Amino acid sequence: MATDALPSAETVRAEIDAWLVDTWDPEATVAEWWDRLARAGYAAPTLPPDSWGKGWPRSLTGVVTEAIQEHGAIGPPAGLGTLLAAPTIAAHGDDDQKKSMLLRILNGQDAWCQLFSEPGAGSDLAGLQCRAERDGDEWIITGQKVWTSTAQLCNLGMLIARTDPDLPKHKGITYFAFDMTQPGVETRPLREMTGRAMFNEVFIDGARAHDRDIIGGRGNGWAVANTTLGAERSGLGSGGSGAAGNAFPGPSAGALDQPVREFVGQVRTGGTGGGGGGAAHTYVRLARDLGRSDDPAIRQGLAQLYTLTELGRFGALRAKARSGRKGGEANIAKLMMSDILRLQRELGNQIIGADGMVMGGDTKGGGIVQELTLFSPGPSIYGGTDQIQKNILGERVLGLPKEPGPAKGTPFRELLHN
């Protein structure tokens, strides 16, 4: 949508307020409410109008989110379907996929996970060895994926697999919408030191995907995957919202048939352990409650945390305003998120002192700092490590030379593999 055709923030606020008065019903089920939100274009307003969105920039989407919260309603589904699959399908899907797959993401009927990383293909994702072999109108898929967030709760996955090993490694990859509930798929949770299991291993042995499940065309999976990765780095980055939402979608989570009023005020996150733009305000309150707000070192840390989160927020707004951006904004945002989470960890423990060594909700701060401390190494690894983000910035943005390696056109089957 052209900038001069965009409504003002005041117009959007009046529109969504009126719609909420007419539509919000706390006695409706979660599924009913999410379907109303999706069909009205308010579940993902940044998506184009032909993809169940409004074509609005992030600034106007924030107006919608604020109005929903202040009205006492709940926002769209949490999870990677809304964060990653939806913008990818909107960019690369055909008309049928946009019509059917996107609606089921935005109204919470389907929950998606991301089947990208493998035991030998994380930092070098294009070296993946999960293979898809043609069988008529279907593909037989075999391989292993790892670090798959929330896979145990998802019925669909964003799967990239090698469909042509005779092509260079970036060329012979295809992107599938993949049924996680079929025979031949086994999910094994990976327990973290937080005690939870957000990540999983997924073993695929002879499972199937149809031709119509290919997103973006056969052999074009690397380009499609980069759209997903861009959305991931922006969403998980310093100015992003992660996988934030009120309830988890899909048939396995058990929320769809519940009264929507049960989820008002609840917020699920992508597991950042207390991160996000509100962290500085949370820590200011904590420092005041514990009588530490006059400590010069803590005050300096709070100022630094607030400054970094605001820089991240404005950077994300600037990136979103650039249509077809080619720079490294998403990678910078991801790096800033790692810095912010590390600062939160150090500053939080500085505020609560020795209580940082004790877990439990009855400790200073209610356990928020301890939870963040245990989770803090994760963000510098998932979604592409900090080192990978720096390599991308160096090579693709600054034009620095790549590390020595095989010629770019070398067929995948001729490369050395782990």
Give a verbal description of the structure.
By secondary structure, this protein is α+β, with helices and mostly antiparallel strands. It has a domain at 272-397: Butyryl-CoA Dehydrogenase, subunit A, domain 3 (Up-down Bundle), CATH 1.20.140.10. 39% of the residues lie in helices and 12% in strands. The chain is built from eleven helices and seven strands. The protein has helices at residues 9-23, 30-39, 58-71, 80-92, 95-106, 221-236, 279-289, 296-321, 329-352, 368-375, 386-397, and strands at residues 112-115, 131-135, 138-146, 156-162, 173-179, 185-190, 199-210. The protein has a four-stranded antiparallel beta sheet, with no helix packed on it. A hairpin with a 2-residue loop joins β2 and β3. The model is unreliable at 269-275 (pLDDT under 50).
N-to-C series of helices and strands:
HHHHHEEEEEEEHHHHHH
Sheet-strand content, in percent, reads 5-15%
Class based on secondary structure composition and strand pairing:
alpha+beta
Number of strands: 7
CATH architecture type of the domain at 272-397: Up-down Bundle
| Oligomeric state | single chain
Q: Helix proportion of residues, in percent?
A: 25-40%
CATH domain topology of the domain at 272-397: Butyryl-CoA Dehydrogenase, subunit A, domain 3
Gross geometry: globular
Can you summarize the main beta sheet? Answer: 4 strands, antiparallel
Termini, distance in Å?
46 Å
State Rg: 22 Å
**Can you list the strand order of the major beta sheet?**
2-3-7-6
CATH superfamily of the domain at 272-397: Butyryl-CoA Dehydrogenase, subunit A, domain 3
Name the CATH class of the domain at 272-397: Mainly Alpha
Mean pLDDT: 89
Number of helices: 11
Low confidence ranges: 269-275
